[in-house]
Design a protein that fits this description.
It is globular and about 65 Å long. By secondary structure, the chain is an alpha/beta fold. The chain has helices at residues 7-14, 57-67, 82-93, 106-114, 129-133, 162-167, 179-189, 206-215, 229-245, 251-257, 261-266, 280-283, 329-343, 361-369, 378-385, 398-412, 418-432; strands spanning 43-49, 71-77, 100-103, 149-153, 156-161, 198-199, 272-276, 295-298, 312-313, 316-322, 391-392. Helix 7 packs parallel to helix 9 and helix 16 (398-412) packs antiparallel against helix 17 (418-432). Mean pLDDT is 88; it is low at 1-38.
Length: 434
C-alpha cells in the first residue's frame, strides 16, 4: 500500500513560530525556548461520521494521532438517518467546531454546499480526485466542482442465506433478476418465524433511484418522471408482499418497532436482506452475532425484464468534506488526503473498501474476509460485492426525495391508494424540480 504522510507540508503547517531574535547580549527572547523556538501549538480536529467508532473509525483516528502528535483528531458519531443528519446540519450551521464530516448521499452534500459549510476543493491542486478515486468520483460533482473526497467503494445488494436457498431448491439469482422474481423467492422462503425478505430503511428506494437514474429525472418535455409506471409496479409488488404474501414485514410494524433487520437476518429470521456493505461489520463479528449459515449475494433487482437502462446502487461514497468555516483547514486537508489514500484501511473489515488507487484492493479484500472466509459464497461475492455495474449518484434535491418518501409511506401505511400516491409524487416533485 502506498502511504502518504506529507511530512514537509505538516512541518510547515505546524511550526509554532520562527526562532526568536537575539538581543545584543545574544540571550533568547523571553518568549522563546532554550533554543530560541516556541513550543508547537497542538491542533485539535473534530470529524463527524455515521459508523460506530468501534467498527473502524477509532482505529483510524488512533493511527493518525499516534503519528501526528501535533494534530489530534476526535471522532464523533452521528447516525445516518433523518435525526442524525439534522443533528449534523444544526451543528454545522451553529459553528460547533466541526472540521470534517461525512456525506452519504448527494442530496445532503448539495444542501450543505448551498449553506456554505462544505468547502470548495477546486483551489486544492495537490490532490487529483479524478485520478486518485477514478471516473465514478465525478458523480459527486456539484456545478463541476468537488466539495469533498469520495473515499470508499459503494456497495448495495441482497444478502442471501444460502442454506435456506439450498433447502428450498432455489439457485443464487442471476444478476439481472427482477422484483417479480424476488417476490416468488420470498414466498417460497417464508415460513413461521422467518421472513422471506427484510430491507434496511435505506434500501426501500434503491430500485426507484436506479430506475430514475436510467430514465432521467425529467421527461423530454421537462416534466417530472416521479410518476412513472415502473415505480408504480415496484411499489405494488412490495405492498403485495407486505399485506398478501406476508413475506416481508408491514411497513408500519418495521417503522414503529425500529426493527433490527441486520440482526434478524444473522439470527436466521429472514432468508434475504436488502442492505449495503455496512452489514459486514456485524456479519463478520461472530462473537456478538454468531451464525452458522453461509451468505451469498444478489444484485438489487430491477423492476421487470423489459426495463431498459436500469442502474445499480454503487460507484463511490463516504464523501469526506471539510467545513468551510473550520479554523484549521490546512490540517483538516492533510488528514482528509491521508484518510482517503489508505488511512481508512482499518474500516475494510466492516465492508468499507477504500476507493483510492493508492490502496491495494487485495489487501482491503483480505481484511474484509479475514477469519470468516468460510461464511461467504466466494463466487457470488466476487460477482456482486466486487463486481462492476452501471452505477449512479442521484442528482435530486433532498426536498424531492423527502416528498417521495412521505407519499410512498402513506401507501405502505394504507393511508392512500397507489393512484393517489403516484399522482402526488408527480405533482410535488414537479414543483420542487422547477
Amino acid at each position: 500500500m502506498k502511504k502518504k504522510w506529507y511530512p514537509a507540508v505538516l512541518s510547515v503547517l505546524l511550526a509554532g513560530t520562527m526562532l526568536a531574535g537575539c538581543g545584543p547580549s545574544g540571550s533568547n527572547d523571553a518568549q522563546g525556548s532554550a533554543n530560541g523556538q516556541t513550543a508547537k501549538e497542538k491542533i485539535k480536529l473534530t470529524m463527524w461520521g455515521a459508523v460506530p467508532a468501534e467498527a473502524g473509525p477509532q482505529a483510524v483516528i488512533d493511527n493518525w494521532n499516534k503519528d501526528n502528535p501535533d494534530i489530534q483528531v476526535e471522532y464523533i458519531r452521528n447516525v445516518n438517518d433523518d435525526a442524525g443528519n439534522l443533528k449534523l446540519d444544526t451543528a454545522l450551521m451553529t459553528n460547533q467546531n466541526i472540521d470534517l464530516f461525512m456525506n452519504y448521499d448527494l442530496a445532503h452534500l448539495q444542501k450543505r454546499m448551498d449553506a456554505g459549510v462544505a468547502l470548495d476543493l477546486s483551489t486544492k491542486t495537490d490532490y487529483d480526485i479524478d485520478s486518485q478515486i477514478g471516473e465514478d468520483a465525478a458523480m459527486w460533482k456539484i456545478n463541476d466542482k468537488y466539495y469533498g473526497i469520495p473515499t470508499k467503494k459503494n456497495m448495495a445488494f441482497v444478502w442471501l442465506n444460502k442454506d435456506m436457498l439450498d433447502a428450498a431448491g432455489l439457485p443464487i439469482p442471476a444478476v439481472d433478476w427482477t422484483w417479480s422474481d424476488l417476490e416468488e423467492y420470498a414466498k417460497k422462503l417464508t415460513k413461521p418465524g422467518v421472513y422471506g425478505l427484510l430491507q434496511a430503511d435505506s434500501s426501500f428506494p434503491t430500485t426507484m433511484d436506479g430506475t430514475l437514474a436510467g430514465m432521467g429525472v425529467k421527461q423530454a418535455d421537462g416534466t417530472s418522471n416521479f410518476g412513472n409506471d415502473l415505480w408504480k409496479e415496484h411499489l405494488e409488488i412490495l405492498h403485495n408482499m407486505m399485506f398478501v404474501d406476508k413475506s416481508t414485514p408491514e411497513y408500519g410494524e418495521q417503522l414503529t418497532s425500529k426493527m433490527p433487520v441486520d440482526t434478524m437476518f444473522l439470527q436466521g429470521k429472514a432468508a434475504m436482506l436488502a442492505a449495503g456493505e455496512f452489514i459486514f461489520r456485524n456479519a463478520n463479528n461472530l462473537k456478538d452475532y454468531p451464525h452458522d449459515f453461509k451468505t451469498a449475494f444478489a444484485a438489487i433487482p430491477k423492476v421487470n425484464k423489459d426495463q431498459k437502462d436500469y442502474k445499480y446502487s454503487g460507484g463511490v461514497g463516504d464523501m469526506l468534506a471539510l467545513n468551510a468555516k473550520s479554523k484549521n483547514l490546512d490540517a483538516a486537508w492533510e488528514f482528509a488526503k491521508w484518510y482517503a489514500d489508505g488511512g481508512m484501511l482499518p474500516m475494510a473489515s466492516g465492508g468499507r473498501i477504500p476507493a483510492s488507487k493508492s490502496v491495494d484492493s487485495k489487501e482491503a479484500m483480505s481484511l474484509l474476509m479475514k477469519g470468516v472466509e468460510d461464511k461467504y459464497d466466494t463466487d457470488s461475492m466476487n460477482k456482486i460485492v466486487f463486481g462492476k455495474f452501471p452505477s449512479f449518484q442521484l442528482n435530486v434535491t433532498q426536498q424531492a426525495i423527502d416528498a417521495r418518501k412521505e407519499e410512498y409511506e402513506k401507501y405502505f401505511l394504507n393511508k392512500q391508494d397507489i393512484e393517489t400516491t403516484m399522482k402526488n409524487m408527480q405533482t410535488r416533485s414537479q414543483e420542487l424540480l422547477k
